[in-house]
Write a structure and sequence with these properties.
This protein has 96 residues and is an all-alpha fold. The protein has one domain. It has helices at residues 22-27, 32-37, 50-79, 84-94. The longest helix is centred in the last third of the chain and has 30 residues, at 50-79. The radius of gyration is 20 Å and the shape is elongated. Residues 13-31 have a biased composition (Low complexity).
Length: 96
């Protein structure tokens, strides 16, 4: 049970746009920025043009991919600290 109040800076419903921007309701569930953010957009994003939201979504996805790649490299580098005979089992335990 959560007593937390909803964040007023976030759009509470899919496709709703308090700013009156029709682009939010037209995009519906196919909104790439909503998918990139993993949840509702901040209300202020309703003022962005569709081209801007697409550009922002692409930038977020590219940065997330780069971050994942960096994390994978760091994990592999950390495994070099584990004795060679134990790396296989440790890799299985950590990366199931």
């Amino acid at each position: 049970m959560s007593n937390a109040a909803p964040d007023p800076r976030r759009d509470p419903s899919p496709g709703a746009s308090p700013a009156g921007n029709a682009a939010g309701s037209a995009a519906g569930s196919a909104d790439p920025l909503r998918e990139a953010l993993g949840g509702p957009q901040p209300v202020s994003f309703g003022t962005l043009a569709p081209e801007q939201t697409a550009l922002l979504a692409d930038a977020l996805n590219a940065e997330r991919a780069a971050q994942n790649e960096g994390l994978e490299e760091a994990a592999e580098a950390a495994l070099t600290l584990v004795p060679a005979l134990a790396r296989g089992p440790v890799r299985k335990i950590l990366f199931k």
